[in-house]
Amino acid sequence: MRTHTCGELRSSDVNSDATVCGWVNTFRDQGKGLVFIDIRDRTGLTQAVFDQEDCEAEVMELARSLRREDVVQIGGRVDPREGGKNPKLDTGEIEIRGTALKVFSRSNNPPILPDDHEASKIAEDVRLRHRYIDLRRPTMQRTLQMRHDLSTLTREYFHNLGFLEVETPLLIKSTPEGARDFIVPSRVYPGKWYALPQSPQIFKQILMIAGCDRYMQICKCLRDEDPRADRQAEFTQIDLEMSFVDRDEIIKIMTGFVRRVFKQLLGLDLGQIPKIPWQLALDKWGADRPDMRFELHLQDISEIVAKTDFKVFQSALAKDRGVVKAIRIPQSADKLSRKIIDQLQETAKLHGAGGLPWTKVTENGFEGGIAKFIEGVTDELSAALEVEPGDTILMGCDEWLKACESLGQVRLHAARHLELIDTTAWKALWVVDFPMFRWSEDKQRWLSEHHPFTAPIPEDIHKLESDPGAVVSAGYDIILNGSEIGGGSIRIHDTEVQNTVFRVLGLEEEDMREKFGFLLDALSQGAPPHGGVAFGLDRLVMLLMSTDNIRDVIAFPKTQNGADLMTEAPGPVDDEQLDELKVQCTEPVATE
RNA sequence: GGGGCGGUAGCUCAAUUGGUUAGAGUACCGGCCUGUCGAGCCGGUGGUUGCGGGUUCGAGUCCCGUCCGCCUCGCCA
């Protein structure tokens, strides 16, 4: 049907005959006898020209009738461009002198045009509603290509290392812990339900117990939680698991993978990827996924300000693990207006802090904000923070974790405002030594920091029940530019340890059997030491394509209400379908 | 579930204090034009101002409710 794609003709093809197929990108009708058609496919754009000197009258007439997004086949001789080259196009040195034209189909007046320049202006819901046009845009095509390249590279990389690709089921059993499940009613067992997998976690562990040794899968995961700019309810993971490995062996292989991805797809060398303990990440950057593209480290000033009688500091320090932390923002006093500081204060409060004590450094010491409360320790504080006139000092004081996290958020927002983030930099790291559990005030029980199958480090196993909060897990996350792109852990391969963890999480013996009996059975039938990782494929593509919108890297994404605007899912079903499933609605279906 | 922003022609936007027939660009339709490439020039079609109430002599504009989209908190082991 075609001899060439729309992106490949060059001056070396001049004088040969070519036939291309694609969409009419634009038309420029110069009058009865001359019309230019830019024809587009996935690979690019080629100009065709129909001149009445060359072609028959019917062809000429048909060419003049072409409109944007009509689908056509154009045949003719490849010529150097008569009217001058177009340096903006890869095919800009040539044109096809059209002599044959076939219209495959006509397009109604397109609601949007597949034009990258226009796309940023068009409301996203319109793009989603007409996704088949939006996806025609060069950027979207490049994104689909990038996603494909990443998947291909992933399979190749891991298959070469002996990983076996195994599919795991989509209709599975609902398990407690973690996100809300999407559930599917069973027709055969009325009143019983399948869940869609939040991840293949348990299956990949069972594959290890089954002797699979190394498993990989690019799989869909589903979590019925509200989406965000970088999060969809339905997303894709690169899922991996290995037997007979320790943490550092896994990290080594995965580091190789990530470096290969960025080397091969962007030509970037991420270099060595350091391992940072969780506690240090929070202490220094105020986040468990630190963005290390800029400095602004958090510093502990508890000991110094303890000497003041500032009530705010004193009451924070009186708390269990209470601290006062500070960040020094060099030469920012004139850029951080009162209004901006107020905004940063809101950020701090939003993330749990009571406020954001601040002061500025002048030739005369600290001025503004809480300056008068720290007069007594001016010299000591100045020396510790190595301040210079023009600096701004922002502080956080609370229980350690809250103080670090809220000030960490302030750090990010301040850096964005002051444009301190080197957007050309690529900073990756592994965060390791997470705590095993996190106390939930809400639920009044321990929650898994990672998931309930994560192993504690061996030397902490004895503390599981006596001091859960102090147990360090064998988990690890990989962070790139402040974004979590993957994470995993060494898993528990011992039934007793797994039982103990379930107990700490507040699962009753009976519950355990009911919910996880099959896993406990499997663990008791010879389980190898094993561990693995899951990478967020969507987030990797976001980084590779430099977008902060996850919907831009998914062909058919959903909105914040979980709707697909193109197909209008979710939709109603027939009463017969519900009857068959023995399912009833307690609320009438909302109408518009 | 909470907070913020938004919804006017197919698309992007405008419309004074509540006041005449809701405008412009673009797309689309028609005409002109033989070297354009974000083509150009002339003319034209196109509107339930998201939806439903209310206030008013009069509502795109004010009030109430509701739906939808985006950002965000909660949530996301």
In spatial order, strands of the major sheet run 6-9-10-22-21-20-17-11
- The total of helices stands at 17
- Strand content bin: 15-25%
Shape: globular
Terminal-residue CA separation? 46 Å
The tally of strands reads 22
- Low-confidence segments, given as residue ranges, are none
The helix/strand class is: alpha+beta
Radius of gyration over alpha carbons? 30 Å
Largest β-sheet summary? 8 strands, mixed
| Overall residue-averaged pLDDT value | 94
Helical percentage: 25-40%
Summarize the SSE layout with pairings.
Layout (H helix, E strand, L loop, with lengths): L16 E13 L4 E8 L2 E8 L5 H8 L6 E10 L13 E12 L10 H4 L4 H6 L1 H4 L3 H23 L3 E2 L17 E3 L7 E3 L5 H9 L4 E9 L11 E10 L3 H20 L8 E3 H8 L12 E3 L1 H4 L5 H7 L4 E8 L8 H13 L7 E5 L2 E3 L10 H8 L6 E8 H18 L10 E5 L4 E4 L4 E4 L26 E6 L2 E8 L4 H10 L4 H15 L6 E7 H9 L29 H7 L11
Parallel strand pairs: 3-5, 6-9, 11-17
Antiparallel strand pairs: 1-2, 1-4, 2-3, 4-5, 7-8, 9-10, 10-22, 12-13, 13-16, 14-15, 14-16, 17-20, 18-19, 20-21, 21-22
The chain binds one RNA strand of 77 nucleotides through strand 1, strand 2, strand 3 and helix 3.
